[in-house]
User: Fold this.
Amino acid sequence: MHSDRLKIGDKEFGSRLFTGTGKFRSNEEMENALVASGSELVTVALKRVDLQNENDDIIQHLDHEHIHLLPNTSGVRTAKEAVFAAELAREALHTNWLKLEIHPDPKYLMPDPIETLKAAEELVKKGFVVLPYIHADPVLAKRLEEVGVHAVMPLGSPIGSNKGVITEEFIRIIVEQSNVPVVVDAGIGAPSDACKAMELGVDAVLVNTAIAVAGNPVEMGIAFKEAVIAGRRAYLNGLAGKSNTAVASSPLTSFLEQE
Amino acid sequence: MSTFKEIFDRYSWEEVKASIYAKAAGDVERALGKSKRDLDDFMALISPAAEPFLEEMAQLSHQLTQKRFGKTIQMYIPMYLSNECNNICTYCGFSLDVDIPRKTLNDEEILSEVRMLKSKGYDHILIVTGEHNKNVGIDYFEHALELIRPHFSHIAMEVQPLNQEEYERLIKAGVHTILLYQETYHKEDYKKHHPKGRKSNFDWRLESHDRIGQAGMYKMGLGILIGLEDWRVDSFFNALHLNYLEKKYWRSNYSISFPRLRPCAGGVELKSVMTDRQLVQLICAYRILNEEVELSLSTRESEKFRDHVLKLGITSMSAESKTDPGGYTLNQENLEQFEIDDARSTNEMAQVIRKQGYEPVFKNWDAVLQ
Assistant:
């Protein structure tokens, strides 16, 4: 497992658990939980940050050497708005990494595939490391890969729903076909869901609500950390090869053995 | 353009009322057991039959709200620009026939209010006015917004119904949210409560949210003035309105407010006095019906009530509100729209929220997103 590091763009990660910063009861609790989770990539909604303020409280609490910021564009409805917001984020937060989120539907926060593809293409050209949040749509994932995104982030189920990886069959196809890292984002409600996603072979998962809203977010952060490690270890060690494990007696061909 | 009126006209007040009061415990249990509820379930949840299920409803509402909104409460503060008004509304302190000094803020007064609210830490502001199209119309709004916009991340407005083009102008001027309450969906009695002024036109008001939606507003707020009519029937119509809007204007966000009239001397006679238990029931019923809608509670309510209810489904709150133009900076008397109950400072309120295990959020939008 030691060499099993995840590479996205110019960065390498030891942890395959990415986290979010919303919904915590305080910024202190958020910091404690995220540190305990071992997460090295943490997404922050631009709308929550005071971009003019160098000492913004959320950003201050994420000031750890091992934590990289992943600003997200939550709130924008079009490619044009996303590109504008991304450029401001790059300037204010000193990172060219971006979680591209365009959901014009504020109820279920479903990502707009058309606007996302348009924005991704433009942002890649402008030098961003783009991680787009998408539906679990294998064709869209390939189209995004073609325009140069650095990872794809298909949803497991609607954001904040805690319903788990209900898009499993489509995630399998994306994993099979993708040449860029696949990060399951949204819907992971329990460590078992995270473990399951990792067993499918995804490269990382992003968890927010399930940690933030837990009774004890710090302990839950640790539970997710362990689940992600377990799922990854299982994937790397032959889980996918179920068919060549136990060889059952095969009565259909046993006649061949008979002389 | 087809509007909510087409849906609304298919319903009869009396039939809706009869359906709500005919709901039984079994209907409530069925509604609570489902994973997704419809308007028929909502009827059961707001019916008298649901009263024994209040604790169960509160637990569910608490859990659903935390899942969606986390352990956070969005903070906002109202800023009144004017109390000039050409309407007569039987319940309102700004009513044309109420003898109070009238005032509309000038540039300097607006800016000093802005500075005061910024110093209290606010970044989400709610601008409120009376309905006086000549002195306080779209041109005045645009000018005021030019002064206000650079200082706040999120601007909401509670203004008279406008036409679509005027709403489009407000969006361009930086407005994110429009709050507009039908007051009551009882068409006949609406006329009694609004005998004079443009507001007396029930349909013009009823179709406002369609114009707001067509204009592309980011968020719309709905509500009824609780107490004017049977709150259960009015709330059903409000939920019907919300459902219709969500499907049609799917790019917009929605919020519900709960302005509750209190019995008071010289005020309008209330047809239905809503108890604290009933307001909790209504808040929980909305959450159980709709997991995504924002629910807002103002300083009209008491300290004790607000402290307890903030865990039960509410997602945004104001603090230390003044309901008169210039109320934060000018020393003046008798200009208020209504008296608030919870007068604690923003800091005190923030402490109370933190103590309950929630974060008071002052910024959750950015002007760059618009």
